[in-house]
Design brief:
471 residues, mainly alpha, 2 domains, two-stranded antiparallel ribbon
Length: 471
């Protein structure tokens, strides 16, 4: 069956037996559990995690170099005044078009974040992605797209590289589909763990989002893969949280840099969750709308649409280089506070809100996690700054609102609140914000659900299913 989407054809082969991939031609049903099977699964989960740690750590190191090169090139271009504007636009457009060409030419499975494809594989809707080229396309294409400044995240390539690497190992050891399924999910979670230096969040993501149930075998594999991946990545990338949160009052407690939220501020976090739930619903609608708009441009080649987005990224980068990329710098500035101007934060949020949707619509390798976390941090900082001005006696910490906003926006968009909370805490080590996070994530999920906004990965899977049916 050939599925024709908005951009490229994907050839699908459905199994006639329960639509489940049979990777070996035998043993498709779950095996009888034995200690030997479980030991082998545990061993392979550790091995898969180590491989994922190497792959994703190498990817992140390459992205860091690409980001430095981009900054240097932009600085050199500005020395040429207006003459340097054209090379910047052309360079970003070429990088995006090349990433898109690699996806179309070598592996359509490598487009976008990879999370919907992994979920569809685990549920039996899609057969496992081909191994031969997807790792190379995801790695090189991701460096080109994210390195050129597109607002997509490294966790998308990390998820798919981890899943494919784990499946490759499972196949080499001739494991059945039940074990392969556990390893694929565990490898994907390990990719999240390394991308954000968040091992618990990676394991939780496997259970909460990828398989959506607790299953002992998958939990064992997820924990093993995430722990091994983090061990390898920290040897290569170093220890410590990804972001540093600094209190405005420079209060340092034994639990972290931020003080515990005063009970009087809890209604403010409740209100923040309501706001974020509404914006999250709008964001999900914008992402799907951007993809649908790209679908309607049937006369445009796949590479041309990506080049157009890349050119827009170049324009933004010429005027404000700090707005480019996955959003790490934006999150760090939001979490460091420093009296951000309300108007400036609002402008940055609006630009990133639109740029994230445009970048994802290009269907180049790159994820949604990092961009939406950055948007949550900006929205939380904006709300917290307004509360600080309106209620000076409460001792409001805008940085705490930025951190809570990350978890709440993730919960509203993805509808995986435990992953969002654990992810935000592991990236910052700010445990004192746990209760405000619970409050804000509760209301964000409630409002987004009441607005009948489906979780983003459910919507993306539905798009994939419609493409299968229409093919």
């Amino acid at each position: 069956m050939t599925v024709v989407g908005s951009t490229f054809p994907i050839t699908m082969r459905r199994s006639r037996k329960q639509n489940r991939p049979n990777t070996h031609g035998r043993h498709a049903s779950p095996p009888e559990e034995t200690h030997g099977n479980l030991w082998m699964l545990g061993f392979l989960s550790l091995l898969s995690g180590a491989v994922t740690g190497l792959l994703v750590s190498g990817f992140k190191l390459t992205l860091e170099m690409a980001s430095r090169w981009r900054g240097d090139l932009l600085a050199d271009a500005h020395h040429l005044a207006s003459v340097g504007f054209v090379p910047v636009i052309v360079g970003c457009a070429l990088a995006a078009a090349t990433a898109a060409w690699m996806v179309r030419r070598f592996s359509a499975y490598a487009s976008g974040s990879g999370v919907p494809e992994v979920e569809a594989t685990l549920s039996g809707v899609l057969p496992p992605a081909p191994l031969r080229r997807i790792l190379l396309v995801k790695f090189v294409g991701g460096v080109l797209s994210i390195g050129s400044g597109m607002a997509v995240g490294p966790e998308g390539p990390g998820v798919q590289m981890g899943a494919v690497g784990a499946r490759l190992l499972g196949t080499l050891f001739r494991r059945n589909w039940a074990d392969l399924k556990a390893l694929i999910a565990a490898g994907a979670g390990a990719g999240i763990a390394v991308a954000f230096n968040a091992p618990i969040a990676g394991a939780v993501f496997v259970l909460e989002e990828l398989v959506r149930r607790f299953e002992a075998r998958i939990a064992i594999a997820g924990l093993g893969a995430s722990s091994a991946a983090i061990l390898v990545s920290r040897l290569l990338l170093g220890n410590g949280p990804v972001f540093q949160v600094v209190s405005s009052a420079h209060v340092t407690t034994m639990t972290g840099p931020l003080p515990y939220a005063a009970p009087a501020t809890w209604p403010l976090y409740l209100a923040l969750g309501i706001l974020i739930g509404a914006v999250a619903a709008l964001y999900n609608k914008l992402i799907i709308g951007a993809l649908s708009f790209s679908d309607r441009l049937r006369a445009w080649p796949f590479e041309a649409k990506a080049a157009l987005v890349g050119a827009v990224v170049g324009v933004v980068g010429w005027f404000s280089p700090g707005l480019l990329g996955a959003g790490d710098d934006i999150m760090q500035k939001a979490l460091a506070g420093g009296g951000a101007a309300v108007s400036g934060t609002l402008v940055v949020f609006a630009i990133r809100f639109l740029l994230s949707a445009a970048s994802y619509s290009a269907r180049v390798p790159g994820g949604l996690f990092a961009p939406l976390l950055a948007l949550g941090a900006l929205l939380g900082l904006l709300f917290g700054t307004l509360c600080e001005l309106a209620f000076p006696a409460l001792g409001v910490e805008p940085q705490a609102f930025a951190l809570v906003g990350m978890a709440a926006f993730f919960s509203g968009v993805v509808r995986a609140p435990v992953t969002g909370i654990v992810l935000a805490i592991e990236m910052t080590a700010a445990f004192s914000t746990l209760l405000p996070m619970l409050v804000a994530c509760f209301t964000a999920m409630l409002v987004a659900t009441l607005l009948k906004s489906p979780p983003i990965y459910d919507s993306l899977q539905e798009r994939l299913a419609r493409q299968l049916e229409s093919g």
